[in-house]
Amino acid sequence: MPLYGAVVVGPPGAGKSTFCAGLCRYLSLAERPCALINLDPACEGEGLTKFAIDVRDFVSVDAVMQDQKLGPNGALRYCLEQLWKSNWLKDQIQRLEEDDCFPYVVFDCPGQTELYVHDFSLRGILDDVRREFDARFTAAHLVDVAQCAVPTSYVAACLLSLTAMLRLELPHINILTKMDMANRYDLAMPLEFFREAQELHRIAPFCGVQPCSLDEDDVEEEPSAYAKQLQKLSGKICELVDDFSLVCYEPLDVSDGESVAKVVRLLDKCNGHPCGVHAPQSLIDDATELFLLHRGGTDGPSINVDGDNRGAAGRDREPRRAPRTVRTHAPGAPPPDVGSRGPGSFSWYASS
């Protein structure tokens, strides 16, 4: 059986570790064997879940910085170049095989974008693995929804997404993460515009301009020379992205089982995985409810995610509020104390 997997890339803070942990936990609920592979030599701690393969067992940034007298970025590129030249990763993946079958692998990649924008080492590593195991990978490029609040940042994110699609040359999906926090931001355009990423020239006039005040007495200021140049540059980037017409974003809320299930279906559709079918509603409900129970969002009867929030006895219930998602960027940090967890309890963050 071929090797199937997802290659998770994106800038720092986009939620790659949280997404990888959530994806692995969801696949485990679906009884699909999976293995998380860390390709970041600069990763600190154990992350949000246990790594089946950790590149730091082969080479680490700290050791290279000390031995080769390189800076952080140079040491990171050196580490991936050494990994590309060796057979270590392929040997480690071969050990994952059981009964002529491989688990679904999830690659947690470094956040430094130059590794796939200006450098060929990451692509070379993936190409070697694909040739060795007849692998079918899907690249998932993550963008934080907070980027939509700053037009210039969103335009840059679209350009980065397009660059990743062209440089990695893999089946590709772009994901807008942390959608449960989207209502906290004041957006220049409707959220659907940022999801579709079409006709980007419409957002260029907002680049470099402060939001307008609602006070009628305030006089609208003339854009500065810098703002005009920024708008012109942003407009050209928007034209470039529109000309390719490849970029669009799939929203993701890791606290919603249906949202995670939709992303998994897209990943399976892109790489042709034989399990690429609609998830049963029971699996979606379990993923949602167990996440909320762990985060303290609800207790009681099962929760449907189709908007029909009714109790087991058919009694009307209050509409479910969006859960308060607590995120941590401290590797290895323990989850918040939410009380004792009995048999069958669930955690996106706990080690396997």
Structural account:
With 352 residues, this protein is α/β, with parallel strands linked by helices. It folds into two domains: 4-196 and 246-271, P-loop containing nucleotide triphosphate hydrolases (Rossmann fold, 3-Layer(aba) Sandwich), CATH 3.40.50.300; 199-210 and 221-244, no CATH class. The chain is 38% helix and 10% strand. It has eleven helices and seven strands. The chain has helices at 16-29, 61-68, 72-85, 88-94, 114-117, 121-133, 151-168, 191-196, 225-244, 257-271, 281-295, and strands spanning 4-9, 34-38, 53-54, 104-108, 136-144, 172-177, 249-251. The chain has a seven-stranded parallel beta sheet with strand order 3-2-4-1-5-6-7, with helices on both faces. Helix 7 (151-168) links the parallel strand 5 and strand 6 (172-177). Helix 7 packs parallel to helix 9 and helix 10 packs across helix 11 (281-295). The model is unreliable at 294-352 (pLDDT under 50).
Briefly say what this structure is.
The protein is α/β, with parallel strands linked by helices and 352 residues long.
Q: Kindly identify the CATH topology of the largest domain.
A: Rossmann fold
Give the uncertain stretches in residue-range form.
294-352
Q: What is the string of helix and strand elements? A: EHEEHHHEHHEHEHHEHH
Instruction: Tell me the total number of β-strands.
Output: 7
> Sheet with the most strands?
7 strands, parallel
Strand order of the largest sheet: 3-2-4-1-5-6-7
Proportion of strand residues: 5-15%
Specify the helix fraction band.
Answer: 25-40%
